[in-house]
Amino acid sequence: MKRLFNEHLKRKVTDLGGAWKFLLDPDKVGEEQGWYKGLPSGETVIVPSVWNNELGLLNYEGCGWYEKKIITGASTVLLEFESVMTTATVWLDGNKLGEHYGAFTQFEFIVNDVSLGEHTLVVRADSTIEKNSFPQRYTDWFNYGGIARDVFAHELEGISILTNHIVYELADDLKSAKVCAELDLYNACKDELSSSISVMLGETEIYNGSITLGGYERKSVVTPSVTLNDIALWDTDTPNLYTVVVSTDTDDLIDKVGFRKIEVKNGDILLNNKSIEFYGVNRHDEHPDWGFAFPAKLMKKDLDLICDMGCNTIRGSHYPNTKIFVDMLDERGILFWSEIPMWGCGFSWEALQNPVIIGRGLNMHKEMTRYYYNHPSIIIWGMHNEIDTSKDFTLDLTKQYYEHLREFGGNRLITHASNHPLNDLCMGYNDIVCINIYHGWYNYGGTGSLKDWDKFVVDLKNYMTEKGWFGKPVIMSEFGAAALAGFHSHFDNVRWSEEYQRDLLEYCIELFHKTDYMRGTYLWQFCNIRTSPSMDINRVRYFNNKGILDEYRNPKAAYFKVKELYKRYQGK
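Given the sequence above, the corresponding structure tokens read:
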């Protein structure tokens, strides 16, 4: 996976990006006709990419096949896929390796007894939305298809390191920490093998030992805890990072970690024992020319603009973002909220009780926590967004997700975003309460006026008090209004104008900042995004136009107002 640093020095890793052969399969006959052995024809496309950006394929939903010739010099190969949209089926030399479901989470296959030389890798990507899809058809983003993120071939030799989680507990004074490593190890040989193994954290060796594994055996290992003194904390002002190197005789895995403590206490959010208020924005990892195959150069530009606004946090709406983007946040000290794509009213009551869908959501949480565990910038795990949280079955689902994230997610706050907070039953399984409401744009039973906000902040406090939840910090995780870039008006309250969007955001941010139980804002949203044609309400051009920049990152009037307010409140 492309990172801001090299993950391996000993291990040979081949980037499989670039030219692949590609063939559409609208009738889904490819498997029956044996395309997995090699495509009968096709055109050249560049991976990573999404096919909906190709001419004539904007609304294509279905199957597309990819073929790539690869060369390996090892008998055991790990094939790593960062994102295939949405169901991936993978073959090597006509042999099926397996399937993976989920558009935004990483997966891999380990292949043994591979002969040295050239091989044929075939991938079928299927973006079809059906009964058990996650998300469902009704979403407020576009359903792209294809190999949207990077693909790599790893040559595994001897005892290899698949993942490494640095688990720590900071002392009360934050000056020392008990630290251990949770390792996922694999013997890439068919015979039993022993190897030394060490874990370096910065200049300190926190573990040195040995391991013996049977042929092709995979094993989880937890090293003994050690105490590290004089910890340099990761914080928004001083994002100190430590390089972690796990080594065996034949393999290595390099990562970066930061030590920090996030917690809720007495109605406040504390980062490293200091109160923090969130000044944030929702951002989709999407561009009209690239879809979800978003280049790292554009990620940096987005981050530059977000930092220029005075933001100290970003919500990755509504799915895990790429590791390289989160690396950028780690380096800059920007806080991140990572969630799975369980979005909104697209999930019917029937879907929310469907064991296949529930299981797919849980697996996405497992993959998210597995591959993103070490990132210090991730301080919030999001369970779901705007589903119906007024039902007992949704409470059961939320409890299941919460318990997994609490056990395996490390030191993070856990939440869901509620768009019907005055009858929400699930806030008890939130560390922080997060609210998506659009008074002044949608009515929500009110008048559609900005004044509805004043009544709302009182009603929310009363509801949370009644339920015994008042005292949990509240964050306004979505609010805003759409504006068509370049549409201006001399009159007040003209919807779709840049002035109306600017004035609404100003009203909201000022109100939320002075509401004593609220601890921050994530305005909706950073920039316009392409949406699904199924979103047939207030989606002019089939874009969600609530961005304070347009889809090409040109600012609207609201951008400058938000920048003024965010920087003023932080004393910048």
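The radius of gyration is 24 Å. Try to locate this feature in the token string yourself.
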